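Just wondering, does anyone understand what follows?

——
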Amino acid sequence: MKMKFKRTGAALLACAMLFGTVPPYAGALFGTAITANAAVAGKGTEDSPYIVTTYDELKGIFDMKYTDWAGDVYVKLGKDIISEDKLNDNDLRLYNNSNIGIVSVHLDLAGHKLARYAKTDDEDMFYIGGGCTLYIDDSVGGGVIESSIDSGEQLSKMFYLGENGALVINDGTFKSVRPVGFNCRERVIYCNQPSAYLDIQGGVFSSDSDTPMYVNNANYIYIYGGTFIQKAKKCYGIIINDYGVRLYIDNCKIIGEGVSTRLKCGSWDLSKVISTLAEVTVDGTVLERWNLGEEISGNEIVIRSPKVINRVNIMIAEPKAGQTVSYLADTNDPDRVSAWGVSKGIRLRGYVRAWLEGDTVLNGDKVNKFEAGNTYTAKFSIMTEQEGDTFSDDLKVTVNGKPVENLKIDSKSESASFSITYDLKKQKGDVTGDGKINTSDVTKVAAHVKGKKLLTKEQQALADIDGNGKVTITDLTRIAAHVKGKKMIV
């Protein structure tokens, strides 16, 4: 079972009453908005995040004075941002030294790359402390943070968790790379503060020179997902030497690329900190719970519990008039139909089982094209990819964000089926009905206007752009302008 705090006002009030303090991840519940540099687009809210396109803009948001203010700041990358610099104090530092303001910065990579390659006195790319929280997500997919810092010291970090700092990572790829010509160690996550809070929900973490995740001490450590890749010899994939209140590990993978990797949690038996529902495999061999011990080593360590999937969104390229049905044919090849569903990082097998035009099933026996004016139904099937995963009884499915109402889940809850209907309305100006307005339509309308070859009543309705009930030179001119890209018909 996934154990996790609900970050509610009641829970925070209870913490304040019991311990006289507010947890570092509490910023979401207090305070109002704060204003960034006027040059940055957006309002910094969840609905209108700041859109940053330079490293200086991003640093400016981290450098805002959070002395007596509390709340959430939302930031999204608007493009790839790469800083190659020799500047000191150019790290992204989220810190409040007044212990009054509690700030949460939500950073969405949005499919972009954020990188810093620097020769500097800075030893970290990010520093989080003083009661502040950094959330990192990737709403689009493919987002990357990469750091390579030559500080002159033997150790550099992408993320350093300081006193009362909190880091929550939901998604993204994080790479620590050793600087060329400098024999230092680069870690992705490093923490040596008993008051820190670390929550890993997903993501890929790799270091080419050291342990990707190294925790000497922290108060709360939750690893609910993620892949940790170790490339250097004689290191660990994850090492946790000490913790205060809670340590929980589940649904993660630790990989040694060409080297042996290890998972170690101080002197504790790993069976005490790994989910009781999880199956632990090392290089494909399942370990017994009683045989976990204090350290696990191998080339690939997988810790996984069965998942119950509550929500799925299917992304599909919707049919368009003029396209052949084979463009989205009945097939179990999801790459052809772009019908993968994703729920909290879980990839599902899925496909369009069949296309129907009315009640007629369209298949590969003949060439079928989607035609404007017709209604088409796609019948879907989705299955869990991992054995043991199931769909919940209240599963919610959307296709391109639109809810599905006719959902059927099989008796074992391992697969589901549903359909969605598309009404391909005819477009004004598309006289030929091929889904496009082009020179063929201009030729047909011109012939009608000249009286050489009259259009059918249905075609005349499509050619009557101005809606006066007649097809004239005015309509012909409008269609020709659309084809030339001068004035589009909407």
